[in-house]
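Q: Got a minute? One more chain.
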Amino acid sequence: MNAMHVRFWFFMIALLFFLGPLFRTPQQMHSYVRSEVQVTMNSLGKAWGGRIVDKSVDLFKLAPVQMTANIFRSGEIDIEEAAKENFVYKSWGTQIAMTFANKMMGGWGALLFIMSIRLMIMLSWFVLLAPMLIAACVDGIGARKIKSYNFKSVRPATYTLLSFFIIPFALGPFVYLVVPFPVSPASIPLITSVMLLPVSVLMANTQPLFGEK
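A: Always. Here it is, folded:
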């Protein structure tokens, strides 16, 4: 059941990315990129936010990301030039299809840059928030050990219920990369804090590994 739940969320993440350009016109997509940069700068300050934007530009220029962006850009076609060379491109049906294709290709390239910004935001928060999550896991494992020494059993029903709550949060970083609207980076610590107690209870009710007491 958990595997099916995970597959569902990954399917939704892929769907959000590939359908993202449908939500905006090319002009709105450019405005979306500017608003994402502005939200980052306003939330984290000029020093921290500016450094993140600079690093995201560097990340965007890296070979795999840039190669993908170039593939999307290469898919864009100059309709006017194409119509001069081939009469097929003058038909309204072809022009509608080409306009739609250009919109999708340009939109995916813009989304890759936004994903670069958000990835750098998550990495900048990771150093501060990772110890909190590790502490929650250690606390839960310690609680499970105490239960075993006191002859108390774990609760599989609690584990199953919490897993449905935790999985969307665990995949939250991937969802955050493709959310089709600007999200304040300041919300990341708040979301992580909400996860701490459920993670601890989840770990306290996991089944012990084979041979573990």
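A: Helices lie at 2-19, 26-60, 63-74, 79-85, 92-149, 156-170, 172-178, 187-204.
Q: Perfect, thanks.
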